[in-house]
Amino acid sequence: MHAFDVLGDPVRRRILELLAEGEMTSGAVCSVVREEFGISQPAVSQHLKVLRDSGFATVRPDGARRLYAVNSDPLQEVDAWLDRFRRFWTPPLDALATELARGRRERRRRTEAEPDLEEGNP
C-alpha cells in the first residue's frame, strides 16, 4: 500500500497523531478512536494492522499488552516526496511571518509611545 493510501484515511491519521505523543497500548488507542469515530474495536484493530503492515507503526509485546509506536521511516519518505513542493508554500509562509513580525513591531511602538502622549510629550 502506498504511503498516501495509508495516510489518506482519517482514522489512521488520528491513530498516528495519538502515537506521535508516545507509545500506547492497543486498548488505549482503541478507546480514543472508538469514541471519536464511532467504529468497532475490530475496525480499529484493522487500522492498526494496516499501519503496522505498511511500516508506519511498530508493535511490541509487554506481557499481555501490545504497545504501539510511530515508526518515522515512512514519514521521512513522505517528507522527501513533499520536499519538491515546498517551494509553493514556503515563500508565502515566509512573507506571512514577515508581515506578522512587522505588525508586532508596530503594536509595540504604539504601546511604547502611548505613555509619552499621556504625559503631554510629543
TrEMBL record:
Keyword line: DNA-binding, Transcription, Transcription regulation
Region named Disordered: 101-122
SUPFAM superfamilies membership: Winged helix' DNA-binding domain (SSF46785)
Limits of the HTH arsR-type domain: 1-90
Pfam families: HTH_5
Signal sequence, renumbered to the chain: none
Listed InterPro entries: ArsR-like_HTH (IPR011991), HTH_ArsR_DNA-bd_dom (IPR001845), HTH_MetalResp_TranReg (IPR051081), WH-like_DNA-bd_sf (IPR036388), WH_DNA-bd_sf (IPR036390)
Coiled coil: none
NCBIfam families: HTH_metalloreg
Protein name: Metalloregulator ArsR/SmtB family transcription factor
Organism: Actinoallomurus liliacearum
Lineage, broadest ranks: Bacteria, Bacillati, Actinomycetota, Actinomycetes, Streptosporangiales
